[in-house]
């Protein structure tokens, strides 16, 4: 199946209040300077996965640090929420965002801010990331660009 990666930051109706990973984060948090939301659209125009990212100047251990480290010109891209509606779409959105970030010369690293769950751990390890750091309530996985 062919998918298209779309920046849906401004298309709030397509993704807001649908995030099972970090439902507590509001629109202002997700769309502030240095933050974007991507959607993975299928051939029929339906979104099958979403990813929220932030550009940062450091590796955050929690969402509070993510807020303080976010920068318009941060060299680290931090996916902090990924969810999908179709098997394989989560992996596909990760791969497409990684490919997209490889083209951005100012991005040097992609490091997640993931929940401290077996599901998140297995997902990222299966998708070629390595565990960088375990925090009190989160874990950082790094993807090689």
List keywords for this structure.
eight-stranded mixed β-sheet; 145 residues; alpha+beta; 32% strand
Shape: globular
Count of DSSP helices?
4
| Estimated structural class | alpha+beta
Say what oligomer this is: single chain
Measured as a percent range, the helix fraction is: 10-25%
Mean pLDDT: 96
**Rg over alpha carbons:** 14 Å
In whole angstroms, how far apart are the ends?
24 Å
Residue share in β-strands:
25-35%
Question: Main β-sheet, in a few words?
Answer: 8 strands, mixed
User: H/E order of the elements?
Assistant: EHEEHEHEEHEE
Ranges with pLDDT <50 over ≥5 residues? none
Say how many strands there are.
8
């Amino acid at each position: 199946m062919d998918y298209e990666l779309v920046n849906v930051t401004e298309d709030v109706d397509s993704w807001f209040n649908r995030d099972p990973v970090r439902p507590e984060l509001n629109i202002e948090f997700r769309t502030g300077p240095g933050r974007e939301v991507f959607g993975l659209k299928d051939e029929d125009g339906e979104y099958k996965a979403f990813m929220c990212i932030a550009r940062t100047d450091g590796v955050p251990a929690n969402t509070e640090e993510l807020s303080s480290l976010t920068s318009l010109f941060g060299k680290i891209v931090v996916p902090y929420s990924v969810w999908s509606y179709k098997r394989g779409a989560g992996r596909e959105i990760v791969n497409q965002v990684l490919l997209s970030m490889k083209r951005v010369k100012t991005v040097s690293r992609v490091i997640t801010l993931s929940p401290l769950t077996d599901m998140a751990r297995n997902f990222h390890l299966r998708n070629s990331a390595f565990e960088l750091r375990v925090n009190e309530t989160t874990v950082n996985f790094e993807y090689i660009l």
